[in-house]
Amino acid sequence: MKFKQSIASRLVIINLIRALVAIIVVASMLYTTREIIKSNEELDRAHQTLEHTLAMQVSSKSLLINGYGFLKSGNPEFLQTFEQERNEFDTDFAILLEGLSIHAEKSKFTLDIALEIKHIIDTWLVEEVEPQIIAQRMNVDIYSPKPVLLKSFLYGNALLTKVKDKQAELIAEEKSFLLKQQKLVQDTLAWAQLVFIGGILIFMMLGFVLSYFAATGITRRIGKLVEATQRLAKGDLDVVVDITSQDEIGLLGEYTNQTIQRLQHLEVVVKATAAEDFATQVRVLGQQDQLALSINKMSENLKNSAFERKNQTWLKNGIAELHSKMRSEHELVSLSQLVITYLAKYLNAQVGSCYLAEGKQLQLVSSYAFKRRNNNDNVFQFGEGLIGQAALEQQSILYHQLPDDHNDLLINTGISESTPTDIFVLPLVHENKVQAVLALGVSRKYSQIELEFLESVASGIAITLHVTRTRQQLVDMLEESKLQSEELQAQQEELRASNEELEEQSTMLVKSEESLRNKSEELQQINSELEERSEELERQTAEMTEKNTVIERAKQAVEIQANNLEKASRYKSEFLANMSHELRTPLNSLLILSQSLAKNSQGNLNEEQQEDARVIYEGGQSLLALINDILDLSKVEAGKLDIHFEQFSINNLLVNLGRQFKPVANKKGVELCFDKEDVLSDDFFSDPQRIEQVLRNLLSNGIKFTHHGTVSLKVIQPGPSVRFDNPALRGRNTLGFAVSDTGIGISADNQESVFEAFQQGDGSTSRNYGGTGLGLTISRELVKLMGGEIQLQSKEGEGSTFTLYLPLDRRLGLAAKQPLKANTRESKTHQEPLEISVPTADNTREEVVEVSTKADLLKSPLSPVPAREKTLQEKNTFADDRDILKAGEKSVLVIEDDPSFMRILIDLSRHKGYRGLSALTGREGLELAAMYQPSAIVLDLGLPDISGRQVLEQLKQNINTRHIPVHILSAEDKNTEVLQIGAVGFLTKPVSGEDIDSLFCNIEHLLQDSIKRVLLVEDDNNNRLAVTRLIANKNIEICSVSTGREAQEKLLSELFHCVILDLSLPDISGFELLNRLRHNKSITLPPIIVYTGRELSSEEYKELSQYTSSIVIKGANSPERLLDETTLFLHSVDSSLPHDQRKIIKMLHNSELVLQGRKILLVDDDLRNTYALSKVLREYGLEVIMADNGKLALQKLAEEENIELVLMDIMMPVMDGYEAMRKIRSQTRFKKLPIIALTAKAMPEDRTKSIEAGANDYCIKPIDVDKLIAIMKIWLFR
After folding, report:
1. For a FRET experiment, which of 93, 224, 669, 1164 has its CA 20 to 30 Å from that of 36?
2. Is residue 455 predicted with pLDDT exceeding 70?
3. Average pLDDT value over all residues in the chain
4. Is the previous residue joined to 1262 through a cis bond, with omega within 30 degrees of 0?
5. pLDDT given at position 329
6. In the predicted model, is pLDDT for residue 402 greater than 70?
7. pTM for this model (two decimals)
8. Nearest-angstrom CA–CA distance, 114 and 168
């Protein structure tokens, strides 16, 4: 689009006007300068004329004198001098004449005088002098007599006088001209100064006026753009930029309006897609319009998914309904009639028939709208026609586009007959045996889902037919068996009568013996037949059992399909989570750059620009919160959201909510009330964070939809009239949180839909009040996970009441939580409850307290802190001594996530004379340590936010907390690695009272020993002296020995707090000394620092790591490191060290200085991210090498040397981050290279996949720069 009056053209016009003024000023200056130059030339000429006039005056006088002398004496010397003076006179006159002739019109009078002087001199020479010269040269005596000489002298004197007069006139004229020229030069200079100053003032004023009007016009229109952009950032799309100028800003306004229209169009499409209206598509503006292509692709995928889901629902409903109907029929013919009728109606078939198999023959037994013929079409042999062929092959046959003369299966309406378009013949096969054949004709083409449906139900129908047929045979056999049993009973009755007759007629025994034997044989034969019948019945029973097993398998198949449907729903949720990658990637660079601009580290932004940057940053954070809501919903649907149960105070919860919402309510003019029934306890066991999240959403909705009136939150005990959907909830074991408002209310038709995702009260709600409709969906699912439910009571126009019901019985809540996945790492660590033996008041016995662990509370290390995380006071409601702690008092900070164990440790610390500080998370512990500077710290390794090991590392890296003794308490096995970092002790749970006493004794011992003793084992005198001078101060006593045996004797007889050991000793090596000390049970080893100049192999490093706390290789920076390690293990307070030592340690721990010059590799395919992140990292002094895919990253690692850390994105073209990290780790030299994974995917398994691929740590986009720098410091300092 061409613009007529561009900003550039306006600026060009302004600059042209200013340039014109400048040209005028310069031209005036040039003209004035030229005039000055001309005047100076005139002055120079006047000076030259005056000089030559004076020279001519002198030469003319000398000429006359020497000429007269020659005339008088005839002396040749006078003649020689005369000739010289004559030549000089002629020369001066010629120069004078030349100068005067150049400006003859301005110096005519002067020229006339000069010519007259010349004429006088020439006349005298010709008449008086030259004849004498000629005569002398001819040796003629022509000397005149004295009178003649006198006359000649008088003539010459008069001539000289006349020449002098003329020369005086000439000099006077030249001086007058000289004065005039000097006056002219002065006037010209004054004019030049006036023109220059005036031109400069005009130039500046004109530039200021033109620039002011141009800037005003630009800023006014840019202000409109900024206002529109701010409204867009807040989600207001009803914006029009009113700029009609014909320049770039006007064009920008037009493009902004097009962008707004584009966003409005996208909003319409997304809403339609959310409502499953897939007809609306986003207009694609070109191949570069990836957003439109992606949304259309997403809509198409959702459309296909909905269509597939609809088909699957239709398929499963048909199968389930058919199976349900078949269960009610037990007769074979009626069952076949039910099947063919149901299938014809469900598939909208016009005609159908069912043929039952009897041997190798198929008999028509039931039909649907089928007109029977008189021919043999009612009976088929296997292989005859389509019916027989399908039975023979046991394969379905689709006959498409039947000929018009086909008359076997016609559609008869009673008025006319027509040929079906498609006939589908389906054999019903069970265990490779055909049970029946179905034929269905339709007047259209069969769809794929219809054919799939028929194939799916075939096996079920066949099984049912087989079972029905078998059941019918079994009934017949039972009837026959019953008849045979009755016959047997009659025969037995006859036998009994015969026996009685035999008893009565014993005398006839001999006669009847033969008859009895025969009957006995008959009876045996009958019993044998009965046994065979019984075996046949058992075999049929086994077959029935097998058939039931088949039915059970079919049922399991249906359940598998239902599970697949559930998986499809989860896949949709994971798709939404993965889609956040496309949103987080551009949001990452937006947040990083806006935060950097808001900090204004270079100081080149004004307050308004900083505020604009903060507005952009806050808008990005709001968008990030929306993405997190979508991810919460995805995690809930995918079953991956953790619920953390703990004891908390309801009153504290209400106070926190009041602090958050009362300013909002007051600003809107809505009264906000909180109330709790007095009979209810303040303590409640559930997840306080999730409860607060749900109540925040309900209160926010209440205030949003209430224009005037009241919003209230009441904690209640539900009455007996309340009915719950959850059968586990009862009025007596339930706690209710009722949020009521007097707002717009919700109609009865919409009360169910408000809990669905992306749904609100009606179509106007989103337009009038905003929001995505996710809040109530997430709230409902969270409440279900906690074992409760949400009930809604509302009347449109009068207000609403949302009541959150939760179980008081903690077992119900925990039971609801069981399906959630626990953290694998912590589940291995904390699988047993902790048993802690605590001394009772009388110290005569020990009481065992069981403390339940909470493995599900643990999250992955360094996971981002949620934006809703509470302050220190809100996170930890445990009563400790922070409010009464005074300066100088001894205190112990306990960092433990188990409140029960925390309470025990705090009570014991008070019993030992310490003030107690409590922290339930690692981050809270770090803040408390920096704030209160406790005397000692008791640290658990398994914490819910970051690991205890990372807490220990950060404590020891901080110059202000590194001196604090830290004792580890953990359920893990003893870990020497934490002792090497700087811990003073390690206790494994469960612990006893003696263990706790030992812990506090150790702490007390460290605090009381003001003088720390160091054993220095070094055989070189110079090195020993240098180390002593390096670490010596008033609080350290150094004992030096030169051999290993001396060191062993010292450790046996004396107490040391630290050992500095050189490996090269004259008697035994340092390795052997360490091995001896380790196996000597009478020696308690203090921290050992190996200070050696040897190059150590990896095996030696591994061996030393079993004994030593630190290894320092002698080199350029080794003295500073040795000092740092020694003060660390001696727990020396920085302020107590000498100034030089303090300076060295501060320099080592200046992380900003340490980051200077460190080389890292940044791998990301998004140019916005690489630009933003590299810009910020370079401000910290880091050297950033960039690559846009994994393959290029491998090349950079091969080409660049000394890369110390890699920031690796996951989703990249060519080679993704997972493969790149695996290839990096496959190279031996990169085994220990720190790699931090960066990704916008936020599903829990993504971190596990990154760690398994080779990452050392994990950071979620959008990147929190401060958090990333903290992680990088940890890995760069290792």
Report:
1. 93
2. yes
3. 74
4. yes
5. 72
6. no
7. 0.32
8. 11
